[in-house]
Amino acid sequence: MALANIDMNKSGARAASDVPLLEIKDLAITFDTQGGPVNAVRNAHLTVMPGETVAIVGESGSGKSTTALAAIGLLPSNGRVSGGQIIFDGEDITNASSKRIVELRGNSIGMVPQDPMSNLNPVWKIGFQVKETLKANGLAGANSKERVAEVLAEAGLPDAAARAKQYPHEFSGGMRQRALIAIGLACRPRLLIADEPTSALDVTVQGQILDHLDRMTTELNTAVLLITHDLGLAAERAEKLVVMYKGQVVESGPALEILRNPRHPYTQRLVNSAPSLASKRLQSGKAKEALAAAAAAGTVEVAKPADVKKADAVAHAEEIKTHKPAGRGDTILEIKNLTKVFKLRGALGKSTDFKAVDDVSITVKRGSTMAIVGESGSGKSTVAQMALSLLAPTEGSILFDGVEVNTLKGKALFDFRRRVQPIFQDPYGSLDPMFNIYRTIEEPLKIHKIGNAKSREKKVRELLDQVSMPASTMQRFPNELSGGQRQRIAIARALALNPDVIICDEAVSALDVLVQAQVLNLLNELQEELGLTYLFITHDLAVVRQIADEVSVMQKGRLVEQATTDEVFNNPQQKYTQDLLNAIPGASLLV
Amino acid sequence: MSENLTPENEPRKPGTATPRLGKSSTRVIEHFVAPLEETPLAAVDKVDESGAPLSLWAEAWRNLRKQPLFIISAVLIVLVVVVAAFPQWFASVDPTSCTLDNSAEGPRSGHPMGFTLQGCDVYARMIHGTRASLMVGIFTTLGVLIIGGTMGALAGYYGGWLDSILARLGDIFFALPLILGAIVMMQLPAFRDNRSVWTVVAVLVVFGWPQIARITRGAVIENRNSDYVTAAKALGLSRFSALVKHVLPNSLAPIIVVASISLGTFIVAEATLSFLGLGLPQSIMSWGNDIAAAQPQVRNNPAVLLWPAVALSITVLSFIMLGDALRDALDPKARKR
Amino acid sequence: MLMFTFRRILQLIPVFFGATLLVYFLVFVTPGDPIAALSGGKPMAPAVEAALRAQYNLDQPFWVQYGLYLKNLVTLNLGQTFSGQEVSAVIIRAFPVTARLAIMALIFEAFFGILFGVIAGLRKGKLFDSTVLVASLVVIAVPTFVLGFVLQLVIGVQLGWARPTVSGTAPWNELVLPALVLGLVSLAYVIRLTRASISENMNADYVRTATAKGLSRRRVVVVHILRNSLIPVITFLGADLGSLMGGAIVTEGIFNVPGIGNLVYQAVLKGESATVVAVVGLLVIVFVVANLAVDLLYAVLDPRIRYV
User: Fold this and answer.
1) Residue ranges of domains in chain A, CATH in brackets
2) Crossing angle, helix B302-330 and helix B248-275, to 10 degrees?
3) Which residue of C has its CA nearest to A72?
4) Positive or negative, the Cα torsion across C93, C96, C100, C105?
5) Quick check: C200 and C123 in contact, CB under 8 A?
6) With b meaning 16 or more CB within 10 Å and e meaning fewer, what string describes B92-124?
7) Left, alpha or beta for A518 (phi > 0: left; psi -120 to 50: alpha)?
8) Which of A288, A535, C182, C235 could form a disulfide with C105 if both were Cys (CB 3.0 to 4.6 A apart)?
9) Rounded distance, CA A173 to CA A206, Å?
10) Most C CBs within 10 Å: which of B1, B171, B211, B267, as the mutation test of the C interface?
């Protein structure tokens, strides 16, 4: 009898490999807000088989995190499951008791959160935070200290035993994320929910951490529910994709098939816009028309945009050059041997020098886009600040139209400001929340005493039109606009003074993919129309491909490589540049 | 971050550069596409034009209007202000015409709260005492806002040695508790001999400004490096204009909250000083003075002490409640996105 | 850590000198003659006046006077009261009483403040939370002297549970009621601070991660929410000790507690400058030391501070 029972269980376990580990059926999640209940998720369904990696892809607000967190009972306090079922390993846990959920967390379902900076408790040592995970799930054993070190070492943390005695603030971002992965996998869960596990990290670190996570979960046969906004990354890491849009699943299926043959219009849009999958520079409207004419004459398959892109890449580069109006091409901004040293205050009034920018020279041609690429701490933003004359260089010079920027004072500096304008990264921080849109765009005109009230209003209308915003936006306030819309307002403000150069400091990094594509297109159209020069600061090589003519790669304050975009992408000279290129997720999937 | 050896800083191992080609599953995975009519596609990033434009202040006001705490405190404050401005509307009896015949008498018709030991009408004195308390509260708050606000804004915005000096200066005044400092200062001959609403205001401002300075400094520091300030500078706005036009308006919310609560505590401080015999002179009718005068009789005739105390407490409470309601309405965390 | 301590001490030195200088300036140098005040405005023999001036160093330049005052403050050579007692002796008698009172008030506000604050913070928006919030507002609004009188009247006189006034030796049990009154306003602040801190931490990312690890609710609350939330509360309490001692004047007056608050108040009324300056100087020292202690405590509680 007993033997028979065991046998039954065995066969049951064998069969279980074809039983979904996690099954979400018709899930609906409702948030109670001040303005009444909001349906964040509707009719969501997905299945995760044991050992399988499933990615949920969507933009912010699509309900992708909410869906995944519901599976581990971690909805915010105002959220609740208002319909459907969550089944884990055959057990309906939709309305499981809190005791049962606590049992499941950690050893059955683990989690790796998004932001490594805020997800470790700052007042406890790393080791303590790992140990309590083991303890809570009854896995600490007698040698808990050694086990903690083992778990941390598995996650790729060097010198784990010593590191366990440190506090989170002594760790770099990548190391913290490794600690969080260690915590998430410490109790060998069968399912790991990884919520944008690397989007807060530098690109080259991202790749390494994902590789490591991949290897570990494969070894342990852990199923992974990966949540990401990056279609390329999802396709590269998961067997199965679930695309969410406005709280609903719009498409799901095998990752590579969806990528190559998206059927839902939203997915098609995503595939077309994903910067990591793009392989050419954006085209302006005119260039597109020319291309369309060519396409009509020949036979270009529209269903395979990737092929079009590839075939067109070289030809188009030529085309752009020939289309340039006269007067373009001469040097407008010349950065020569630029160095910036910051004094870091140390112990006892001693200060150490920190070279943020080290002997950097960059030449920007009028009407072109120069991208400066680098990871955090590469000094790229410091260069931008100096080019804007908001920060004085320690050494070297910046020539704008042949005039030294550094020594500008008074009226001359004031006039310089008119010609060089910035656009910043954070769309929520770059507009004064107290100013309505009209005042925001009018401000530069007022400061420079251009026109009267009436002509200024006309100009503001024109500018709004240029950035494709309705004139009715004038009376609105920044808090009523989305990130992409704010960024367009910031562009309008920058354009108000008819500048020659616009310095974009990570101007699209904080935006969702589709919005990002929209803003990049806008920037590109404006460049064509107004002959603008862009200095484009970014960490994302994928974006560079879409917008830049030339690229300068910076690492730790130094310039490591400089060439045209095509050269850099096709034939990178430096190992570091190659690393950056490899870090673009999904780059090799469509080619 | 110190220069610790992180795995990220290590040279990459060979072999990791091989292109990642994605995973394919041995399982059959169904390719599902949601019907279009169920998930209509909206234009990318369309401006939401439903609803009238709303500034942050308008939004705060809309939130405020719904808070009972705000409604109650606003009604009370309006009432107190009207009483202070036109006490004769509320009390027909002259609070200074006192006859010992009525000494410590209980309530009777026309005198709902009875009489003091001197035979003055308690209700009339309570009504007429409003003005002094309110004036001290309002003018002290104004003074503190001007001095503390300026100091804090300059210290926070310019930083460096100016910040260090102003911070230490604030600490010096902070080191003396408000009441203690006020007591010491009020006994200076110059103040003792000219006691009036203005001397009390002056003393409270001297010891009250560091708090507002600290709050302002913090708020200004939070805003001074915002991108919109940098953008304004890049547009050619001078450093000082950026402070006035952009940084200060955005720093106002916490300052208003603290100022509202401080107004209440300054009224308490005035009453305490008057109670100790160091605040307003006897010739000015005030709640603090009346409470002090009633104190010896508290065991026989507690009502005489109680009524001005209740008036005082309700006034202070309404300002503190206002501050609390404002804090909720102006909270940047609550209103962001 | 050592560097941190050193820097904080360095920053507190100007505060100490500034505050004592301020008080000294206020009491001795402003228009009005302390010697005339000594005699109660009656004419005085020139020789006596000169002797008094010399005794209080008033014949010296201001900086010398201030220097001597500081020296006297440190060596506890504080001069005499009008009744001929050594000021230092009077202070030594009064100081422990106030210290006892302040510590009792501190324990009271810490215990109930944290208790109520934690419950309110964990159950934000519930009945207990709203009640505690409104009650704390009322407590802040009602002036201490009114509260003092009411409690004295109700608990001391009508119910007879405690002595309405404190006797000369000020034993612990008689100080319970005054300590309650003294700590009540701070109690309200501790409740509000704890509540705000708790509810902020409840939404912290690391708390969600801790929950996801499979920890019990109880452990999440105690180890992750409480520990982090109490850091600002504890530092508030530390700084409050100084304020309580300086702010005890009113409470000591009502309950006739023979502490330094009462002492300084009587001295102010009598115009006894030597005592005023000495006590205020002492309180500044207490304030400065309490602040230093709090900073160090902060560094112990929050590992991030140590390396700043």
Assistant:
1) 8-273 (3.40.50.300), 310-580 (3.40.50.300)
2) 170
3) C212
4) positive
5) no
6) eeebeebeeebebeeeeeebebbbbbeebbbbb
7) alpha
8) C182
9) 10
10) B171
Is A105–C209 a contact, with Cβ atoms under 8 angstroms apart? no
Domain ranges in chain B are 56-86+115-330
Interchain proximity C215–A110, CB inside 8 Å: no
C-beta atoms surrounding A460 within 10 Å: 23
Residue B297 touches partner C, C-beta closer than 8 Å: no
Residue of chain B minimizing CA distance to A556 = B9
Q: Do A239 and B1 touch (CB under 8 A)?
A: no
Rounded to whole angstroms, what are the CA distances from A530 to A368, A487, A525, A526, C164?
A: 11, 19, 8, 6, 85
Cβ–Cβ of B172/C149 closer than 8 Å? no
Contact A269/B235, CB-based, under 8 Å? no
- A283-302 burial, b at 16+ Cβ within 10 Å, e below that, comes to bbeebeeebeeeeeeeebee
CATH superfamily, domain at B56-86+115-330: MetI-like (1.10.3720.10)
SS3 A124: coil
Phi and psi based region of residue A283 (left: phi greater than 0; alpha: psi -120 to 50; beta: remaining): beta
Distance CA A339, CA A336 (A): 9
Q: Give chain C positions within 8 Å (CB) of A184.
A: 212
- Tell me how long chain B is: 337
Written as tens digits, the pLDDT of chain B (337 aa) is 343 444 444 444 443 445 566 777 777 777 888 887 777 777 777 777 766 777 777 878 888 888 888 999 999 999 999 998 888 888 777 777 777 777 767 777 777 777 777 777 888 888 888 888 899 999 999 999 999 999 999 999 998 888 888 888 888 888 777 788 888 888 777 777 778 889 899 989 988 898 899 899 989 988 888 889 989 988 888 889 999 999 998 888 889 888 988 898 899 888 888 888 888 888 888 888 888 888 777 777 777 888 888 898 899 999 988 888 888 787 655 443 3
Q: Which of A565, A554, A539 is nearest to A360 (CA)?
A: A554
Per-window interface: A 347-406 vs B, CB < 8 A: 388, 390
Q: How far is A494 from chain B (nearest CA, A)?
A: 8
Listed ranges A16-30, A79-93, B170-184; the one with the highest mean pLDDT: A79-93
Q: What is the DSSP letter of A19?
A: S
Residue A373's H or E segment, with its range, is strand A369-373
Is B187 in contact with C143 (Cβ distance < 8 A)?
no
pTM above 0.90, yes or no: no
Burial of A443 (0-12, 13-18, 19+ CB in 10 A): buried
Give C-chain residues touching B265 at CB under 8 angstroms: 140
Chain A touching partners, 3 or more CB pairs below 8 A: B, C
Chain C partners within 8 Å of A133 (Cβ): 213-215
Assigned token pair, C266 = 């009587």
Q: Which of C18, C143, C264 sits opposite B268 (nearest CB)?
A: C143
With b meaning 16 or more CB within 10 Å and e meaning fewer, what string describes B293-306? bbeeebeebbbbbb
For chain A, give the number of residues.
591
Interaxial angle between packed helices C227-246 and C260-270, expressed in degrees from 0 to 180 and rounded to the nearest 10: 40
Q: A100 CA to chain B: closest CA distance, Å?
A: 31
C15 touches B at CB < 8 Å: yes
d(CA B236, CA A448): 8
Is residue B85 classed as helix, strand or coil in its secondary structure?
Answer: helix
Residue C18 is nearest to which of B172, B177, B276, comparing CB atoms? B172
pLDDT tens digits, A211-236: 888 888 899 899 999 999 888 888 88
